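Researcher: Here's a chain I'd like modeled. Treat it as a single chain, no partners, no ligands.
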Amino acid sequence: MIYFLGIGGIGMSALARYFKAKGHEVAGYDRTPSPLTKRLEAEGIAVHYTDDPLLVPENIDFVVLTPAIPSNSLELNYLRERNAKIVKRAEVLGMLSRQHKALAIAGTHGKTTTTALVTHILMTAGKKLSAFIGGIARNIDSNVVIGEEHDELIVMEADEFDHSFLQLSPFVSIVTSIDADHLDIYGDYQHLVESFNEFVDKTADDGLVIYHENLPIKTNKKHITYGLEHADVIAENICVNQGETCFTIKGLNLREPIKMSLYGNHNVQNALAAIIMCSYLGIDEASIREGLATFKGVQRRFDIRVRNERHIYVDDYAHHPEEIKAALTAARNAFCDKELTVIFQPHLFTRTRDFMDGFAESLSLADRVILLDIYPARELPIEGVTSAALLEKITSKNKMLCSKGNLLDTIKYIDPELVMTVGAGDIDRFVPQLEKMLEI
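Model: Modeled as a single isolated chain. Structure tokens:
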């Protein structure tokens, strides 16, 4: 049996489903039920929600651990006392990356959409592969593609948290962005940059490194840059036409405009990275175009949940100032005649403290801002770091604090024409209820 501590996480659940499909007995613990854990249970995986050593199975071959599990976990310490074999999730992904040609997509933001897009284009081209995606890709309604042992390719979202991506051995790597984040892990921005460069250096000598033109990447590996200005591959003539984003590409042999249903310049650049990777792997132009045109996106990544005459509702996972800026700018450009209301749940006290001014600046792009309390995740409160302190810095004329208990009534009263839920905590639990309310 393989036992997962923190089985409900997006990355852990993908691994659990992968090993279950490969014929292993799988079980796990997570703190709270969620749509992901319910799906695991429906697929025959035993999940419990109480941190209780008495619930740990006896016949465990090894334990897969997520960094989200605290060091004082009762089950974790019980398993350590039993001298159980415990490996980090990243180590398991590292092992899998060395069994196939690994396509690893990293970045402080943009990596999930790019990973899902690469996976979809390759599948459109008929490639056999496995894939681990940090979100639910709408085309497959899943966060994992389970291939065969002999498949050549494996696509992997490469997570920088806790230095996890340094376990991977990529054949081709992408770095979409390096913005200051996870400073509780890295200490400062320079150490974060060093870690990304270490990740890039793990790319195979006969492979390729693909990275955004503005990044402080230094590598002797074969590499290609992409972006909107001075890169090897540039997106030009970007426009939104009849609900589609269109753009041309300079630097690749693709002469006709590209069309896709994703919005925002950030997604244009994510698409560029995916196109370069797939082109390098020999995917034909027709498959690339079809893959981009038919890509339905990823849940919680500029995820348009409602679009009718009265309401437009977009849900987004953005939890860093740059991500919020990109998401709100995309909404402004796509729905330029609508008043924009954003509901934001700050994630982590340390992140809110470190980027207070950046959050205020990005959120001020909205006409109305509704702030929920900070989602603590693994952290204890920090004095003076509150949603109220953030609200004071926001310059939008309409702004307010709101409890989760009052959110639905507040939105019903406001009746916004364009509303976004933004954040990485448990704000996603409101999505189905808001969707139902605004579909009217």
